[in-house]
Amino acid sequence: MKSIAENDVTNCSILRLLRNVYLDASLDIDNEIYVRDGLQFPTWVSVLPKERLIKFFTYMDFKGCDFTGCSVFEVASHLNTNIAVPVFYAMGERIYANYFLTYTGGVSKLQLISMLRRFSGAFEAGIRLADIVPPASPEVEARQRLHS
Question: Is 3-147 in CATH node 3.30.1460.10?
């Protein structure tokens, strides 16, 4: 089957699909899917049944980050102007991004996986474009080694 029928779109059915394409994903305590590995940047996925939407969501803490002297709000605005797919916004010391994919009438598995990868890659591209250097941590250092 190349698509998931509208009535079958759930966090569990999407979780199965993500695992079938070898993404390291699990349900978190809020019953949202957390994809921690296999994408360019960790991302949450959740189904919004009333709206018939699939939400992709991620964020990065700015606390302790070294960036170009702009406020986090200016960075989000700059990214929205220059990066396609995610919608960036700032709250406190975090920059967030989300994207909504409709599943009215069902959703193509290929489209869902492709948009998830594009969303994650675009978020990481935005972080690079903004020239944000996150605070040093073992996870960040491991990611940098993988991408260099």
Answer: yes
